Amino acid sequence: MGRILELEHVGFYYGAFRAIDDVSLHMEAGVYGLLGPNGAGKTTLLKIILGFLNPLSGTGQVLGFDISKDRKLMRRHIGYMPESECLIPGMDAVTLTTYLGELSGMPHQEAVKRAHEVLYYVGLEEARYRQVETYSSGMQQRLKLAGALVHDPRLLLLDEPTSGMDPGGRKEMLGLIRNIAESKAMNIIISSHLLPDIEATCEKVIILNKGRVVHQQSVSSAGTQRYNRYELRIKGDADRFIDRLQAMECRVETNDRGLLVVMLSLKHSVMDLFRLAVEEGMQIRHFRQSRTTLTDTFVKAVGADDGN
Prior knowledge:
The chain is of the alpha/beta class. The protein is built from ten helices and 14 strands. It has two domains: 3-221, Rossmann fold; 227-291, Alpha-Beta Plaits, CATH 3.30.70.100. Strands 6-7-8-3-9-10 form a six-stranded mixed β-sheet, sandwiched between helices.
């Protein structure tokens, strides 16, 4: 399917504030997660991809369209589910979804037909003639998703798609997103501060901080390192035990529960830890294999960018 996004040295400023600072990104077809703390530039980047903002520096293409010259045409192929409230009171779901389809360039009859289809798909078929202001928060999120899907876009942008949803609704929304990616072969970019949502739906993650891309990787590789990771609690001289581990080229940290986190080089086996404890006259009172999570990756990437 080729690349869906190419940005080269893109920048955008609000006065002296650099919201997007020399960003270069290449996205192949797939499902991407966009992570970052508040003020990292996620919303500004989405607005550039949508063509709502024209970058002040750099060049780029979305779905082969120039982000500066082809913005109106580009938006016909993009579906957008905003985080903010965007529903129009006084309309029922069918009327609103039809209207959004027409705004995307669809003929009226085709938009009506698609509106019924996508409302059924997101689970709102029984409530499709209700006024949208009577919807619960979870139903409103589903309706926003239907509006983003009505014109069958090539690229779907989801901004905090599970915002305001209860645990059951959140699980169903994540299932819908996975189904859209798999059955419709649609490209998706999800902006979220909920790392479990990204892990549950995305193939790759991009971390932004202070307007810059600070990390990119496959979500499945978030825990893949050149060592095995274990949590230990020992009885004995912990400092001496750590010194011996470091002599074995192991990395050792202490986590927030007071456990030793040992990154054991792949050239050593787990039995080497127990042999070392016996040699030093110590006891291992707690032992568990662990893994590096997306949370660890996020904290390290943002912390490194902050100079911490």
